[in-house]
């Protein structure tokens, strides 16, 4: 035990934290995509596991083909938008339940991503040879670029969801009957929301691949859970700190903060020399616990068990009075 | 304003639950008609309103609003002609959105949703005035989330939303049935005020026969998916609940004894 603690170097942790922040910013953008579907549209969209890899695959392959990294990222976003639209169309036009539509898209994207990467599971892109937007080799610069991207994305989302179209999308997620009665095409709104969401996820995938220096067919695996973790951690902290004053822009910002916290914890776990493969289990537990808390709180307020106990006590008191 | 020609709708065709809900129903509403709709359970009242609103397509027949054939239009496309208030106060509003955002959504009913601002400063003033007419103090809470309002407040808001842009047709599906008697009366009063002020062509379903007689200029009774009784003007004003019960008894035979119609 003493040997274990002696092997931990606190300065080493401090050295690693900035990289955690940079990754957190990138995954925060991914989590904003999840926020749109999960919180605003009330759909758990599993296509994101595929589109994250798609974003990486498209970006890296285009850069390797000599395309400018900025253009490559834009094309990756378009690929994400298209993948999201496929999920949306499967769901709205063909009546496939949203969760299954997402799974189908994700499953198909595995093959599509391999095709994009020339049937190779991993493609490296070196920052020495190519002019990348963001790289893990220069962490302060990566934090700056990640920060700029998150600010731009939050600004655009804040604006969009305040427009007539964005309000229509939020109404669709909140109450479909009401939306239809107000003349909103809810199918179009769902396709739009899924599309924008996956566009953001592909953007994050494209940034992540440049940051790590490679695109990997499995890079997106489980990203829906990480996205949910970031959304939920951000919400819990945002509501605890700001309470009623947490407005929409604040909510979006706290999703990013949730992503950063997730990666800082991830860095901490690695520093503690815990097998990183266990992180998936920890993440799942965190998400399950935070999703369960509001329900359990409600149950605590009104449970049959407590009502029964109160009743027994009252009956007993009444008897004693006799 | 509204012409319904011989519409039919059968649910669960070919199963043991097959139900002929609308059976060649025809009805014409004149401009400004305020029609109350009564009938027993399964008579086809809500089905009629859903057919007009375009919740699903009818099996046969035509529906024309202001001379335009809307039979082939999906519900959200018909919304530009129709204002609706539902039985469940939760159905007509978006709970997680603000009062003014809900009103702004209604203000744009049937219009193209652009990338312009969802709520503008100028329209806030209009909403404030309109909300004040409800006498519920909602004009002071315009940025409150609708989920915080009571059922009656939400129903009054839905009514305001349905009529914010003058609809060619207002459909009220037992919109006071889920409210306590006092609140129900308030919402009914507000309904009368708005419908009369804007001379809205209205169909109002109710289970309360007194209300059916007291409100509107015309009354129709449905049975087995058809209009079996249609009165207006003086004749309608002079109706009594007993008249209606008799009419209903003749049409329905003895079945009506186990119906949930309220005697008033």
Give a short account of the largest sheet of chain A.
Answer: 2 strands, antiparallel
Can you tell me the CATH superfamily of the domain at 2-96 and 167-255 in chain B?
Answer: P-loop containing nucleotide triphosphate hydrolases
What is the CATH first-level class name of the domain at 2-96 and 167-255 in chain B? Alpha Beta
Highest CATH level, the class of the largest domain in chain A: Mainly Alpha
Rg of Cα set of chain B:
19 Å
Query: Low-confidence spans of chain B: pLDDT under 50, at least 5 residues?
Result: 256-260
Query: What's the total helix number of chain A?
Result: 13
* CATH fold assignment of the largest domain in chain A: ABC transporter involved in vitamin B12 uptake, BtuC
CATH topology of the domain at 2-96 and 167-255 in chain B: Rossmann fold
User: What is the N-to-C order of secondary-structure elements of chain A (H for helix, E for strand)?
Assistant: HHHHHEHHHHEHHHH
Count of the domains of chain A: 2
List descriptors.
A: 322 residues, mainly alpha, ABC transporter involved in vitamin B12 uptake, BtuC, two-stranded antiparallel sheet, 13 helices, 77% helix, B: 264 residues, alpha/beta, Rossmann fold, six-stranded mixed sheet, four-stranded antiparallel sheet
What does the secondary structure layout of this molecule look like, with pairings?
The complex is a heterodimer of chains A (322) and B (264).
Chain A: H1 2-7, H2 10-40, H3 48-64, H4 69-92, H5 98-116, E1 122-124, H6 139-160, H7 164-174, H8 176-181, H9 186-212, E2 214-216, H10 223-242, H11 248-271, H12 279-301, H13 304-321
Antiparallel strand pairs in A: 1-2
Helix pairs in contact in A: 2-6, 2-9, 2-10, 2-11, 3-4, 3-5, 3-9, 4-5, 4-9, 6-11, 7-9, 10-11, 10-12
Chain B: E1 2-11, E2 19-29, E3 34-39, H1 45-53, E4 60-65, E5 68-69, H2 75-78, E6 82-85, H3 99-107, H4 121-132, H5 151-164, E7 169-173, H6 181-198, E8 202-205, H7 209-214, E9 218-223, E10 226-232, H8 233-237, H9 241-252
Parallel strand pairs in B: 3-8, 3-9, 6-7, 7-8
Antiparallel strand pairs in B: 1-2, 1-4, 4-5, 9-10
Helix pairs in contact in B: 3-5, 5-6
């Amino acid at each position: 035990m003493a040997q274990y603690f002696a092997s931990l170097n606190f300065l080493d942790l401090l050295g690693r934290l900035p990289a955690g922040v940079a990754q957190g910013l990138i995954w925060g953008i991914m989590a904003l995509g999840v926020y749109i579907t999960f919180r605003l549209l009330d759909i758990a969209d599993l296509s994101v596991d595929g589109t994250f890899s798609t974003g990486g695959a498209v970006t890296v392959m285009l850069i390797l083909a000599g395309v400018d990294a900025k253009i490559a990222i834009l094309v990756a976003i378009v690929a994400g938008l298209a993948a999201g639209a496929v999920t949306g169309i499967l769901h709205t036009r063909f009546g496939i339940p949203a969760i299954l539509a997402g799974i189908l898209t994700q499953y198909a994207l595995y093959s599509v991503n391999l095709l994009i990467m020339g049937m190779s599971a991993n493609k490296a892109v070196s920052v020495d040879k190519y002019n990348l937007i963001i790289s893990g080799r220069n962490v302060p610069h990566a934090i700056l670029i990640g920060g700029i991207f998150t600010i731009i994305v939050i600004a655009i989302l804040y604006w969009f969801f305040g427009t007539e179209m964005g309000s229509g999308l939020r109404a669709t997620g909140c109450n479909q009957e009401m939306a239809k009665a107000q003349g909103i095409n809810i199918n179009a709104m769902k396709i739009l929301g899924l599309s924008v969401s996956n566009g953001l996820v592909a953007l994050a995938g494209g940034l992540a691949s440049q940051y790590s220096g490679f695109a990997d067919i499995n890079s997106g695996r489980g990203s829906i859970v990480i996205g949910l973790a970031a959304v939920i951690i951000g919400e819990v902290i945002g509501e605890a700190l700001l309470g009623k004053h947490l407005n929409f822009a604040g909510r979006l910002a706290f999703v990013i903060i949730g992503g950063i916290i997730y990666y800082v914890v991830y860095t901490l776990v690695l520093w503690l020399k815990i097998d990183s493969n266990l992180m998936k289990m920890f993440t799942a537990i965190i998400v399950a616990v935070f999703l369960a808390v509001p329900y359990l709180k409600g149950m605590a307020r009104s449970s049959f068990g407590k009502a029964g106990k109160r009743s027994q006590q009252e009956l007993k008191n009444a008897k004693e009075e006799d | 304003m509204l012409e319904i020609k011989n519409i039919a709708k059968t649910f669960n065709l070919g199963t043991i639950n097959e139900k002929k809900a609308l059976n060649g129903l025809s009805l014409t509403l004149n401009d400004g008609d305020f029609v109350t709709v009564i009938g027993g359970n399964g008579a086809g009242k809500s089905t009629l309103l859903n057919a007009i609103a375009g919740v699903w397509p009818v099996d046969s027949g035509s529906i024309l609003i202001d001379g335009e054939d809307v039979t082939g239009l999906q519900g959200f496309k018909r919304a530009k002609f129709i204002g609706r208030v539902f039985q469940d106060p939760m159905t007509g509003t978006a709970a997680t959105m603000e009062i003014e955002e809900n009103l702004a959504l209604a203000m744009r009913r049937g219009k193209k949703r652009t990338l312009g601002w969802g709520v503008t400063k100028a329209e806030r003033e209009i909403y404030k005035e309109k909300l004040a007419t409800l006498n519920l103090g909602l004009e002071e809470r315009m940025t409150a989330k609708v989920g915080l309002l009571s059922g009656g407040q939400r129903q009054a808001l839905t009514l305001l939303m349905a009529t914010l842009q003058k609809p060619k047709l207002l459909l009220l599906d037992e919109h006071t049935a889920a409210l306590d008697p006092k609140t129900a009366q308030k919402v009914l009063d507000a309904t009368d005020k708005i419908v009369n002020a804007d001379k809205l062509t209205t169909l109002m379903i109710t289970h309360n026969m007194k209300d059916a007689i007291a409100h509107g200029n015309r009354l129709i009774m449905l049975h087995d998916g058809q209009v079996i009784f249609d009165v207006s003007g003086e004749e309608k004003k002079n109706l009594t609940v007993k008249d209606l019960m008799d009419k209903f008894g003749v049409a329905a035979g003895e079945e009506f004894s186990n119906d949930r119609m309220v005697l008033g």
